[in-house]
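This section describes the prediction task in plain terms. A model, or a person checking by hand, is given the sequence of a single protein chain and must write out its three-dimensional structure as a string of tokens. No templates, partner chains or ligands are provided. The sample shown here is typical of the held-out split.
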Amino acid sequence: MNGAAANSISQRIVDDRRSAHLNLAVNVFSYAILLGGAATIFLTIYLIFVSYSCLPHWDGWSQIDFGANEGTPFALDWLWRQQNQHRLVLPKMFLLADLRWFRATQVFLLASIFAIQLLHLVLLSWSMRVFGGWRGALWRTGIGLAAFCLFCPSQWENFTWGFQTCFVLPALFATLSFIGLLLYWTRSGREFSRRGSWKYLLLSIAAALGATYSLSNGNLLWPLLLTAALLLRVRLAAIVSYAVAGVASTALYLNNYTVYPTVMSSARTPIAVFKYLAVYFGSTWVPSGLRAAEIIGLAGFVVVLFLLVSLPTYIRNCRLLPIQLVLTLLFCLGTGLITALGRLVFGIAQAFASRYQTIALLFWCCLGLILLEIVSLLRDVRDRALLLSQTVLLAGMLVAACLAQTPLISARLHGFEINAAAMALVTGVPDSAQLQWADSHPDYPRSLVPYLRSERLSVFSEPEPSYLGQPLDSVFGLASADDCLGKVESSTVITSTWPRSLRITGWAWDSEDRRPPAKIAVTSDGVITGLGTVGGWRPKQETNNARMTSHFTGFIAYVRDVSRSSRVDIYAVPRQSGKLACHIATLSPE
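The expected answer:
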């Protein structure tokens, strides 16, 4: 063997080893990204649990109002009735189910939101595998990216507010409608399967109808589907079907529809609308800073423009996954535009609202998946490009993990404030400032309390309201005082009510279970006359106890009908026992 041949063999061995090492790195990184996506899902589950409140929030009171003032005979009218700028037929069905079968505790609604996002993840994963032909490391990377975006805690409002089924349903239906169109396109072109292709067309139209009657942005699907059908050159019958269904649905939607003046005024300021739109998408990457968000959003728009130019190439080459993703990107952009027109009146900074991140994250998810699709088509440098993409994605996940504490704290404190409002309703203490966490008009939820109480709905479905008026020892056993710690920080008289009522704040700790207690019970001369909730933020230096491992030890409690001569005792109720009360503080008679 001559020297040249030996060098060639040696170089080939070295190249094979490098390729094996590169392939190993790509596989390891793909599993890391998949694990990151799974961790994001479990983090969101944790977020839902720690921020849970059974009390409705803002628009969520519409289900209670319906039950109290209208009822079943008027269900169809209520389902169709315009709410703000939307017809929420399907989301209201979820609200009715929660009211009818789950006592308006929000559990069904929050579980539905999570399930909708999970189903969306399944659809996107299916598209990557069937439409994109992704396998192995590439598929795992795509699934991890999609899971991370669909369940990122930055969209915490939509995971903690039961009413928000209307925010997650349209995106799911949009993906389903595009999948139906592309399946129809591919199946209708084959003689052996043409007979059954109509079911995919029907699926696409049904999904578009579902999106339309979930939120106003669903109406965007009709022009998108019709334009896509024309570009794909599907059969004339399908094009006519989309046109007829779209026109009929839109005409029905607009029947007796009220256009808000804010939309028209925003349309007259296109530059401000564009800035809002840029911040809407750019805010995914920066928690604040209008200029930075605008620049990032603008960069995303430039990439989408490039992808639109490439769309005819995707169609000629029958690349189904990029086509689906480009259509989804256009849907996201349209959704952002509709939001900008309706919400610009509140200022551009309002585009940072966490609930808008559901669409913004889907936008960036689609861009990331298209990048992976482009990488998958590279030949000589495919693994290197994929490894670079995975490195960037992992870095982004690590940065997001470092920032995850902010939305977690926001969600947890939001839930605590709503739970405190629930205690004000249960005890009948009209603390208007606290009740604004439940609704911007504090008297509104108070007016619905008789219905909630009589039907045992929401917070009145729980056992705590029945404790009021009972002697403490008939409800709870007494735990040792060494089992808990606590302190009263303030006791404020609610001046807007009679008889005399108090708002009590402080902190409490269950030393036995080494966590904050479940709730607070307040007695007046031995009788339970007040209730409270635990979960407010307290710096550890305020409690001055090294054994306390949580910051969420603050409580708010309300007690009604307290005379100046009464002895008021505050008890912590541990989570584990539920039937023991531990004395933490006493308010001396005035």
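For orientation: The chain has a mean pLDDT of 92.
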